């Protein structure tokens, strides 16, 4: 569905609901949001100030929320419009939880010109019922998207992992990736590990989607017969809490072998795994892993949207919370509530303010093994990244156990490796470090 089709379809829905058409600025805002433009860019193209565009955009999102009976925002309007168009022109029909694309005479959405020949003029079985709505802005993830698309479309990687801290934007990135490459696949599936109690139940669900009429069919065989994109969220739910990262629960103890089979068997499909913890790497040229870091300079857009003051100290705030978009949004809300939007006042506090981040950090901390808790407590007391050639004097386990603990912490994205002049040093982020120190006064 291109932007002109989206504008016409949306305008028709608005007129049917209100008896009025969208005005020219509202159409420009919708088009700009569709193309991931900022309000400032939309304003520049339409001879309006950013403030005026933002004000009119708020009115538009309220109007569309009423029309579509969903909470419409700049970040999710494209997803909601496309979803609504698919549902409308398919008369809301869903078969076995798979949404069928429009019949041949349907004007929306048209088949993309660059779609692969194998999917042209054919139904595309898809089940995206578990895919979250696009509620988080990607801000600036262009480089990451380019890397992922190259791995999947050019290198034909069969297994791709996107790992990172909670709130870092893994799901939002995968959602945008799906939109940009979906026409290159015959089938699409999004699932969360949270709904499956075992590897067996996951496999059964995959077979039901891949081969509903042949429940005994091989998953690999179906991956060969039609190119399929499968996104599996919350991989960390398959791991055991209290053990080193990547230790599978008993009901998932053969998951590593399953992933190995996916990676080694010849096919043109792709599994994308989203996880707070990196699984133990599979040595195979068809496997790729992306460690998703903070936003960096582009995170300033989050603070600008909140209207925070003391702009000269924004980068300091971003560094403090690791450029994590979710953490920064949470902290920005606190700054508004307690410090009247002043970043400087928050940063003048003698310790790193955690506030509503504590439950998130607590959940990550609770998953650690005993050796990891001791190792991260030591790292939290260090004023700069440190080498780990020798274990701390008060570390009660072996040197090998210390190295394994630090390695596990890096797989959980709780400890960062900094390499300079061929020497690796390790450090814990400021927010997590402050939380750990509170646990170990």
How would you characterize the overall build of this protein?
With 441 residues, the protein is α/β, with parallel strands linked by helices. The chain is 44% helix and 10% strand. The protein contains 18 helices and ten strands. The chain has helices at residues 3-18, 24-34, 39-45, 50-68, 77-89, 142-154, 170-181, 199-210, 219-225, 255-264, 300-305, 314-320, 325-339, 343-347, 358-366, 370-380, 399-411, 430-439; strands at residues 94-95, 98-99, 126-127, 159-163, 187-192, 228-233, 270-275, 287-291, 415-420, 423-428. It has a six-stranded parallel β-sheet, sandwiched between helices. It has a two-stranded antiparallel ribbon with strand order 1-2.
Main attributes?
18 helices, alpha/beta, 441 residues, 44% helix, two-stranded antiparallel sheet, 10% strand, 10 strands
Q: What is the number of helical segments per DSSP (H or I, 4+ residues)? A: 18
Strand order of the largest sheet: 3-5-6-7-4-8
Please mark out the parts with pLDDT under 50 across 5 or more consecutive residues, or reply none: 91-122
How many beta strands in the DSSP annotation?
10
Q: Compute the average pLDDT.
A: 86
State the distance separating the first and last CA atoms. 56 Å
Strand residue percentage: 5-15%
Instruction: Classify the helix fraction into a percent range.
Output: 40-55%
What is the succession of H and E elements? HHHHHEEEHEHEHHEHEEHHHHHHHEEH
């Amino acid at each position: 569905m291109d932007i002109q089709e989206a504008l016409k379809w949306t305008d028709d829905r608005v007129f049917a609901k209100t008896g009025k058409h969208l005005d020219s600025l509202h159409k420009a805002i919708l088009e700009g949001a569709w193309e991931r433009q900022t309000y400032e860019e939309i304003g520049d193209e339409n001879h309006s100030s950013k403030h005026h565009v933002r004000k009119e955009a708020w009115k538009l999102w309220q109007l569309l929320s009423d029309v579509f009976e969903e909470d419409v925002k700049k970040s999710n309007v494209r997803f909601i419009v496309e979803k609504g168009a698919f549902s409308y022109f398919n008369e809301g029909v869903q078969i076995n939880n798979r949404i069928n694309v429009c019949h041949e005479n349907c004007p929306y959405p048209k088949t993309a010109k660059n779609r692969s020949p194998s999917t042209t003029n054919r139904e595309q079985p898809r089940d995206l019922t578990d895919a979250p709505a696009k509620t988080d802005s990607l801000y600036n993830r262009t480089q990451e998207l380019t890397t992922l698309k190259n791995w999947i479309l050019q290198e034909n990687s069969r297994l791709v992992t996107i790992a990172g801290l909670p709130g870092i934007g893994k799901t939002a990135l995968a959602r945008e990736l799906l939109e940009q490459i979906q026409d290159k696949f015959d089938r699409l599936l999004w699932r969360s590990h949270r709904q499956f109690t075992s590897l067996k139940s996951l496999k059964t669900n995959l077979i039901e989607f891949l081969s509903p009429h042949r429940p005994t069919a091989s998953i690999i065989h179906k991956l060969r017969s039609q190119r399929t994109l499968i996104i599996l969220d919350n991989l960390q739910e398959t791991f055991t809490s209290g053990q080193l990262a990547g230790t599978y629960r008993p009901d998932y103890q053969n998951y590593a072998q399953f992933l190995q089979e996916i990676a080694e068997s010849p096919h043109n499909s792709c599994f994308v795994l989203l996880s707070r913890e990196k699984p133990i790497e599979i040595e195979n040229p068809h496997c790729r892993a992306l460690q998703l870091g903070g936003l960096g300079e582009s995170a300033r857009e989050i603070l600008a949207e909140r209207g925070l003051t003391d702009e000269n100290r924004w980068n300091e705030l971003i560094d403090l919370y690791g450029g994590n978009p979710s953490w920064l949004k949470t902290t920005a809300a606190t700054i508004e509530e307690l410090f009247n939007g002043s970043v400087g006042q928050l940063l003048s506090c003698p310790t790193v303010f955690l506030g509503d981040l504590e439950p998130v950090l607590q959940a990550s901390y609770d998953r650690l093994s005993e050796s990891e808790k001791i190792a991260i407590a030591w790292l939290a007391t260090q004023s700069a990244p440190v080498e780990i050639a020798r274990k701390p004097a008060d570390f009660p386990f072996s040197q090998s156990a210390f190295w394994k603990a630090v390695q596990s912490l890096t797989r959980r994205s709780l400890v960062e490796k900094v390499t300079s002049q061929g020497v690796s040093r390790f450090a814990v982020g400021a927010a997590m470090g402050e939380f750990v120190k509170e646990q170990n006064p």
